[in-house]
Every structure is written in structure tokens, then in C-alpha cells.
Amino acid sequence: MKIQSWILAGALASLSVAAAAQSQAAGKDRAEAVRENIVKRAEALTEEQIKQSRDLAGLSKLAQVYNAQNDTQRLIWVLRRACELMPNSGDLKLQLALAYAKVDDKSNAYDTLVRMQMQGFGYDVAHDARFAPIHGTKVWDYLVANLGNNAQPFGEGKAAFDLPKGDNAFSALAWDAKRGQFLIGSARDGSVRLADSKGKLTNFISPNSQYGLWGVDALGVDADHGKLYIASSASPLYKAFTAETAGKAGIFEFDLGSGKLIRKALFAEGSGAHRLTSMVVDKTGQVYAADGARKQVFKLEGAGLKEIVTNPKLTGISALAVSGDGRILYIADFALGIYGYDLAKGQAFEPAYNAASMVLGGIVDMHWFDNTLTIVQDGMVPKRVMRLALTKDGHDIAGAMPLDVAQPPFEALGSGAVVGEKLYFMTNRQDPFYDSHGVLTDADKLEPVHVFASNLRFAWGQNGVGAALAPISGDATISHKARGAHAPDDDTKH
To answer: Is the pLDDT of residue 1 over 80?
Structure first.
């Protein structure tokens, strides 16, 4: 039987029985029987069966079972498969290295950590007692130093300004080049405000009965035509959220100068719940927006939204960017990385890149700039901003350059906007302080929202840099696979 079939069914059954057990003792016996059955089936699985699974939820359940049973060998099989399915997850790779260390498999533990170091991951493994079995070699000392170095602050970016503290849940940032001012969207109250270079706010657009705006999730600017686009949705984070408006969403077009509503395109009744969490406008004024949870991309056409991309294989869509010539739409999946869609041909593609030295997961914001993509990686360890050099046709990634890594303000990275040759973006989003029902859990923890500026032309024209292997001498022992791995053109820690 496939892993996903019995493990998920068993998990649901155990949850159901556990709930019943609260009211009757018989349920406890049944819950224990279900648990024992799951353990028995898990213990019978072979490495080959686990390799065939593509069910991350099922693998997660299996990992819990094997960890509880202290079955480290099968836990390793599960973690290896999970790492194959989620190649951008540093945390999964760290858990795999820990599993190898637990059974004193130095070769595989070192190999895993070396590969992580080469990809730019930065973890403090020196103080993790679980790695004690593999201490005491020069390879270990090398790994501790280099993984630690990767986590050190890097880059020439600077703090730009702060937005006022408050119950605002600022979620979107855009730039009006003509008037030299930022536009700030609030998912909390549905407003768009203007901000100067010091963060001073001025009211611009507020939700009212005429506009019909809900919370602001994304902003897009068409500078040439003087248009502002707002992706708005009735999510629980919106203060005026009601059961009647739940799931409503659309794109609102305003005059960029006056703030006057021009048109709006809403999802039709009966189309299900939507939330457009990312948006981009090309140089001609064409608007694209993504419903991240539903893995769909729409284009604005007249008073409607036309679906152009849907991919159930994605885990979600976290950011969009469009090439300068308007031919390619880039789609970021937080877990899986970057995908492309050739708008001229109507064809999807996966950009090729050197996965041995590049991690493309954890992206929360993405921008096209002079035949490069700049990505903001909140889900990377350490958090960072990277510039990706594209091939001439824009279909592949030729190299990468870190712009800013592990800077002190980097707490919860968020939305940004290109201003000239700089990328301005939020570094401490406040939405983590709200629960799934939109309730502010601790108002005292709210802070001014910090906006940071990275130089998009930092080290322009230089080869991409990454985590290259330095020579290892002495009594070092390491697998031949790790010795043979390298990152072309990479010569420094990042």
C-alpha cells in the first residue's frame, strides 16, 4: 500500500479516536490500537518503498513515528526522501545530518553539512550537543567555522527609514517615481498611504462604500500611464472582516496622482475564496496577480480576471516578476524555488541552475532588474537578498550574487519596491503578531516597520560568489562525493 494511503488514513483515524477518547474510556483503547497499527505498518516499510513516496505529509508522520520509536535508520530514509522533495529546506538537511550524527556516521553527516555550507546555509552547529558523536576532527572544525561564517552579516545595504508603529499590518510597498514617494498598503485597514524618505505617512486611499476595498495584499504601479493597482481581499487579517465578505477579492485600479478609482475587477460569486497575495505590472501596463494558496496566476482584462497559469504541483505562489520585454513571467514557490512561464508561447518551464551552490527557496519577494532577478529570501537560513544573473533568453540562471545577508534588521522580510538602482523592502513584517483569526495576540510586541535598501548593482559584473570548499588537510576524513563537489566561480564564504 502506498505510504500516503495508510499513513494519512491512520493519522485521521487516530485524531478522531483521540477526540472520542476524551468522553469515553473505550476510545482510549481504540486510539492505542490505531497507534500500534500505524507503528507496526511503519516498521514494515522498506527503504525502496519510502523512496517512492511523494507525500510530504505522510513522510512527516512517518518521521514522527520513527523518531518516537528511536528507529534512526528508517528516519534517515524518510529524511533523505524529504530532502529530495524539498531541496531548498536547510532545516530538513540539518535534521538529516543530526540523524547521521546520532549513529556516528561521520562520512554522511560531514557530506550533508559540507553541501549545506556550499549552498550558503549558515547554522551554529558548534553548540548543538546532538552533534557530539562527530566532534573531534579537523573536518568538524572546518564545518563549524564555515557554517558560522555563512551566518555572518554581509553586504553594503543600509537601513532607509521606519514606518510608524501601530495596528497596521503593512503588507505592500510600491514606488511612485513621478512624485518621488512610496506607497504603503495595509492589510489591516485596507488603506494606502504615501510615505516620504523618512517614513512620514500621509493618507491617500481609504476603504469606503464607493471603493469597496478590503485589506491590501499587494500593490503595482504603472508609472508610464499613471496607474496604481491594488490587490485587495477580505481575509481574517482585515479589521472589518465578516462571514459575508470572507474570501472576496479582486484588483482595483486608481489614478496614481489623484487616488481616484477608475475600475475594479472582482472574482465572481461562486468562484470560491480568493486572495491575491502578489502582483506585478509589465512595462506596457499589463497586470498579473497570483492567488498563492490556489496556485493560480491571473491577468487583468477589462473588468475581469483571466486565469493564465495553474499548477497543482506547486506548494504555493509567494512572488511574481516579469521580464523587461514582457515575455516571461517568473513565479516563486516558497518551498520549491523559481518557475517560468513564457507568455508569448503560453508555455511553462523550469529555469536550470547550479543547485550545488544555490538555494532558491524561501522567496517572499522578487523583482526583475536589467536582465537579473533579485529575490528576498525570508525562508533561507540566514535570511538574505540575492541577485540572480539570467541567461540571454531569460530561461536559465547563470549565477548568483548575495547583496545583503544576515543583516541585523533582518527579522521577517517582506514586500519591496525597486527605486532607481536600489531595492527597498520591509525587514520586520508585523503579521506574525496576528493569529489565524486576525486577532492581535500581543500589541506590546508591535514595532515600527523597518525599511532597508539594498544596492542592486553591488559587485555588478563580478562572478557570482558562494560557499566554496577550502583545502582540508591533516587527519580529515570526508566522503569522495563531498570532496568532488564544488561551486564554479565561487571564491568567498557567501
So the answer is: no
Provide the residue range defining the domain that includes 25: 3-153
Last residue of a domain, one of 129, 153, 177: 153
Output phi, psi for 30, to 5 deg. -65, -40
Among the listed residues 133, 184, 121, the one whose alpha carbon sits nearest the alpha carbon of residue 377: 121
At 398, list the grid cell. Answer: 547563470
CATH, residue 270? 2.120.10.30
Strand partners, 374: 367, 387
Alpha carbon distances (Å) from 268 to 254, 289, 306: 21, 16, 12
Same domain membership, residue 17 and residue 29:
yes
Residue 472 pLDDT level (bands cut at 50, 70, 90):
very low
Q: Which residue has the cell 534517515?
A: 76
Which tops the pLDDT comparison, 475 or 313?
Answer: 313
Read off the pLDDT of residues 194-210 as tens digits, 9 standing for 90 and up: 999 999 999 999 887 77
How many whole angstroms from its chain centre is CA 156? 23
- Answer whether 50's CB lies under 8 Å from 58's CB: no
Which grid cell is 187? Answer: 492589510
Residues paired with residue 250 on neighbouring β-strands, in sequence order: 232, 266
pTM over the 0.70 mark: yes
Quick check: is 422 in a domain?
A: yes
| Average pLDDT over all residues of the chain | 88
Pair 418, 221: CB distance under 8 Å:
no
Whether 399 is in a domain gets the answer: yes
